[in-house]
Amino acid sequence: MSIDPHAEIKILRKQLQSLMDEARLNEKKWRRLDQFEKQLIGTRTLPELIQVILDDYKTACETDAITLVLCDPEHEIRRILERSQAGGAEMPGLVLLEKLDADDARRYPYLGPFDAELPRAIFDPWPADCRSMILLPLMRQGEPIGSLNMASSRAERFTADSSTDFIERLANIFSICLENSLNHERLKLVGLTDPLTGIFNRRYLETRCQEEAENVRRHHTPLSCMFLDIDRFKRINDSHGHGTGDRVLCHVTGLIKAQLRSNDVLSRYGGEEFVVLLPHTGLRHACEIAERIRRTVDAQPCRIDADNELKVTISIGVAQVTDQQEGDDRTLAQRLLAAADEALYLAKESGRNKVVSDDNRPVSVTAKRSLIKLLGFNSA
Ligand SMILES: Nc1nc2c(ncn2[C@@H]2O[C@H](COP(=O)(O)OP(=O)(O)OP(=O)(O)O)[C@@H](O)[C@H]2O)c(=O)[nH]1
């Protein structure tokens, strides 16, 4: 049978055209991926990195839903997000899990029709008309650290035979960026935290105090501050050694922390002195919290070895600033710290194991009692 050369050329042309179309499409995809890589690598903070994946990548991939599941066993990611964004760790599409389900991780990557058996927590809420999806593992040094998940209302968007080269490469880059970003945040934290107690240091406190002073004017809510100092700490060191002194510092840190809200800022200001900032809190409430802390420390001795406990007490000075006060943010912050420090001095002077407010008026039972004691009366 003779072959019509014209027909053959036509077929070959068609095949060539289809190959060229595919090459153009791939080139377009690579260019888009290249752009994304640069965008991911260029992000400077963890929230920014997560946002690029959840917002920009979703738009570029033309999917109807996207979620990022990250394993966060020590709540490290949650804490970083809480510290760096006003909205806390909540980001639409971000799912932080304490533990990854090993069976789920083994099923990935998954591409194909919507599978009701797969955990719904990945998409919450699940897009109503979802027909196909991809669940892609995020790996770091051979270990699963989470998954990138997308869903589409188009059944043909993710099929079992779709190529995953592009998205897998992107997932790898994201995993590296995530690790870099976490390392960067850890380094930042080293400069801002106290190595013994793990809480913020004075440097962080002073910067944060100024930011919170700014919020006083913006939100018209008061900001309170406590200066807390362990009583006769030198004696503890001298009688029991520095190691025990360090243990007492950690013990007191834990007791203070347990009485605070997540948005309060606890720092070790130096030596045996702690400072707490209480945003959106007035003096009366701050004094109540301070009194609760004082009582807790008084009631819970520090275990120094198997047989011995050490009674510890603390003195606390409390002050507040409101939007009625004059001066710029820096002045306001400095005034707040100085006033709380002054109140602490009065608490020490009046016998220790006390809460004293810098306000002349007795704003709470505690302050009233402290004031009475300060004036030399027996408050019993
Ligand atoms: N163990 C330990 N001791 C520290 C640390 N930093 C400071 N200190 C000690 O804390 C003690 C503070 O003593 P003082 O400032 O005299 O105060 P105090 O004995 O607590 O007396 P009052 O505050 O007046 O009740 C000193 O002995 C410091 O050496 C630390 O990181 N670990």
TrEMBL record:
Database matches in CDD domains: GGDEF
EC class name: transferase
Molecular function terms, GO-annotated: diguanylate cyclase activity
Reaction it catalyzes: 2 GTP = 3',3'-c-di-GMP + 2 diphosphate
The EC number(s) this enzyme carries: 2.7.7.65
Domain of life: Bacteria
The protein, known as: diguanylate cyclase
